[in-house]
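WARN retry 2 of 3 for item q-0093 after timeout on previous attempt; input resubmitted unchanged.
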Amino acid sequence: MPDGRATPSSAAERRGLLRESLGLLPAQIVLRGVEGLFPLLLAYWFGRSRDTDVLMFAWAWFTLAGSVLFTAFYDSALIPILVDMRLHRPAAVPRFLGSILAHTLAAGVALAVAAALLAWGVFALRYAGPARSLAALMLVPFAGHVVAVAVRMFFSAVLNAAERYQVPAWATGVGWAVTLGTIASARDAGVGVVPVAMLAGELAATAIVAATVHWGLGVRLQLGFDRSAPFGELLRLLSAEIKGSVISRVNPVVDQLVASFSAIVGAGTLLRYANDVAFVPTSLLQAVLLSVLLSKLSHRAARGDAAEVRRMVRRTAVAVVPVLAAAGAILYAARAPLLGFLFRRGEMDAGGVAQMVAVFPYYLLALPSFGVLLVLYRATVAVKDSRILPAMGVLNAGLTVVLDVLLFQLWGLIGIAAARAIAATAVAAAFWIRLQRLLRPASAST
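OK item q-0093 returned
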C-alpha cells in the first residue's frame, strides 16, 4: 500500500467520520437503551437462582459456538474486501455475496447441530434433575439463534460496507423489542422462554436488514457455492479472525465455569449482570464509532492512502482512552445507587446487588485498555493483516484462564473481574506493539 501525504479532502473525511458517528448516536442510544433493559428485566422477572445460572451458562456456550460465524461478518475482513470489489469489480458483487450467504447457511446449520449435541454432553455432566431438563429445552432455540444472528450480521455487514449504518442499528433495536415483548408475555413459563424470545427477535431483525439490501441497495444476490478469488481471500483472512475470536470467546465460558464453584447462589448470574452494565460505554463506542471507523479505514486502504490510515488509527486510539476513563470514573462514583436502582427490583435481593457493587469497580478498570484494543483490532482488519489475531486470542484466553483460577482463590468473584482488567491491558499493549509499524510515519521505518 503506497504511502503519501494526506489528500486535500482528508479534513473533510475526518469530519465525515465524526458526522457519521454522531448521526448514529440517536439510533444507538435507543438501541442500547432497549438492549440494556434485557439484564434488568431478566433480574426483575427471574432474580438469581440455579435456573438463571443454567441460562447464563447455556447462553455463554452457544455464544462461543456462534462466534465462528459472528466473526465472519461483525467488523470483519468482509468489509474491506467488499469495499475493494465495489470500487474495482462491481459486477462480481452479487455472485460473491450470494456465495457467502449460501456457505453461511450451510455452515451455520452444521455448526448449530454440532454445538447442540456437544452442549447436551456438557449439560448432562454438569447438571442433574430439573436443571438438566431445562438445559435440554434451551438447545433448539439457542441453536436456531446462532444461525439467525449469523445471517443478520451478514446483511448488516453489506449495509455497513455501503455506509448505510442506520439500518442495522434500528433493525437490531426492533429485534430487541420483539425479544422483550415475547418474554414479557410468557415469563410465567420460566427462564426457558428466554432463548425462544431471543430467536424471535433475531428473525425480526434479519428480515429488516435483508429487505433493505434487496430493495434499498438493489443487490440481487445470486445464491450458489461459487469460490472466486475474492472468496478465497476472504476465507484466508477470516480463518485468522475466527481463530482469534473463538479463542477469546472462551473467556465468558471460563468465567461462568469458575464462578459455578462459588458458594454464592447465582454467582455466574451476578457476574454477567455486573459485566453487562460496566461495559455499556465500550458497547456504545463500538456501535457508534468503531463500525464506521472500519468502513472509513477500509475505503482509505482500498485507495492506498496509508498515511491517513495511520493518522486516523492513532487519533482514534488516543481519543478513546480519556473518554472511557471518564465514563468509568462516573460509573464508579455512582455504582451503589446505580446498581441498586437497576437491579434492586422484583426477584433480585439486596445481597445480590451488594455482590455486584463489590465486583463492579474491577470490571471498570478494563474500559480504557479494552477500548484501545477494539480500535487496533479494526485497524488490523482494515489493512488485511489478520494473521496476528489467533496469537492475540491465545494470549487473551491463556491469561484469563490462569488469572481466573488464581485470583478466584484469592478474592472470589472479585478476582474473576480483576482478571478481565489485567488480561485486557496486556492484550491491548501487545496489539499496540504489533501495530507500531502501521502507526509510525513511513520515515521512521526507513
